[in-house]
Amino acid sequence: MNIIIVGDGKVGYALAEQLTKENHSITVIDKNELALRKADETLDVMCIKGNGARASVLIEAGIEEADLVIAVTSRDEMNMLTCLTAKKLSKSIQTIARIRDPEYYEEYAALQEQMGIDMVINPEFAAAQEIANILQFPSAMNIELFFDGKERLIDFRIQEGDMLAGAKLSKLSGKLPKNILFVAVERDGIAYIPNGDFEFQVYDKVYVMGRITGITDLFKLLGRYIQRVNTVLIVGGGRTSYYLTKIIAKLGMSVKIIEINQKKCIELSETIEEAIIIEGDGTDQEILDSENIEEVDAFIAMTGRDEENLITAMYGIEKGVDKVITMATRIRIPDIMNRVGLDSIIEPKMITTSNIIGYVRGIQNSRGSFVEALYKIVDGKAEVISFIANQSARLLNIPIKNLPLKKEIIIACIQHRSTVTIPHGNEKIAAGDKVLIVTKRSDVIKDLNDILL
């Protein structure tokens, strides 16, 4: 596909990097010459300096032959105008806009219709949703919901003394809760798709698919089940904090937000009635102690600086908070955070990139099985892809145990009408079913037929 990316910041660069790996033709537009130089020197992309909302610049970028425009500049208005201009120049073009401001995002459905935006992406809202999911099941490091929340993908780290440590997966089948499936493992930065002979080790990061009841039973079996979260302390009063408070307040959680900027505090107090707003430096241990950090159920570090989040979150762990979550915006920071014991790490850039890549694969494969959603796991080394099977799929009505699956691919879940199943061999996939697959293959999976030999 021919894709134009307007905005060469962190998200724009990450998108260009991933989409070029998937053999798309990419043109990047930005007014920042330094950012363009980095993309030009490190990626196989065409770079144009200019205002991506201007018709002349889009024409220079090849809008007539383009299939998709992705507007991810730092300004919502610029992104919306870029998509509107693109639609005026090409009737067949698809558009994606990053819209972050709550005033715009809360009316995004109307904006989509009025401005012809095909997909709206909001990194802060997506991050808030992910954090809210974790807070509803704090035993897990991270959690993703599938099939309207009927199935969940969680990850956790194996500890010394766990029944999993040193055990082969095939030897555990009778000891573990039913209707859960081990779909991936990360060990020393390497992703594995486990089979029956796979032997778990201490410090492995394990990804498990299952219903909430089965996953709860697993954590109780491991002695690591954490009761629900009632009180939340947040450091940083940005957009993610706003969206998160709106979500979790409806779930009955009590929220405090510490923000150092007085103007932001006033704005938050006027827009968030559900939280207590405290003006102060949330990285100051005395302020955290004065707010009784050791008594809260969950502590979330979401300042604008990764280093401050890291230090603040470490203090939360030191004070014995059951659930500590932190945000990371740079590539290498999550590795550092993991090494110091921080496991629940939210990466808005990774969430945004995954959502857009899933959309791109969906429109690219319009005749095959539709890509409904895509998630990156194991630090981007593996993917979870949700397909809707259609008549073109060669695996219909064949028992899964008889399918010639490629290596390093697992069928993790099937939804047939309203019934969701973790497959164990005899299940069959029918047209219209939703199928969840997990893969660590280097080749791109765009269609259900791509998982077969």
SSE blueprint:
Elements (H helix, E strand, L loop, with lengths): L1 E5 L3 H12 L3 E6 L2 H10 L3 E4 L5 H6 L7 E4 L4 H14 L4 E5 L3 H4 L2 H8 L3 E3 L1 H14 L5 E5 L4 E7 L22 E8 L2 E3 L12 E6 L1 H11 L8 E5 L3 H11 L4 E6 L2 H10 L3 E5 L5 H6 L7 E4 L4 H13 L4 E5 L5 H7 L4 E3 L1 H17 L5 E8 L4 E7 L20 E8 L2 E3 L12 E6 L14
Helix pairs in contact: 1-14, 7-9, 7-14
Provide an overview of this structure.
The structure is a single chain. By secondary structure, this protein is α/β, with parallel strands linked by helices. Helices cover 32% and strands 26% of the residues. The strands form four sheets. The protein has a six-stranded parallel beta sheet, with helices on both faces. Strands 14-13-12-15-16-17 form a six-stranded parallel beta sheet, sandwiched between helices. β9 and β10 form a beta hairpin. α1 crosses α14, α7 packs across α9 and α7 packs across α14. It starts with a strand and ends in a 14-residue tail after the last strand. GO terms for molecular function: potassium ion transmembrane transporter activity. This is Trk system potassium uptake protein TrkA. It comes from Candidatus Galacturonatibacter soehngenii. Keywords: Ion transport, NAD, Potassium, Potassium transport, Transport.
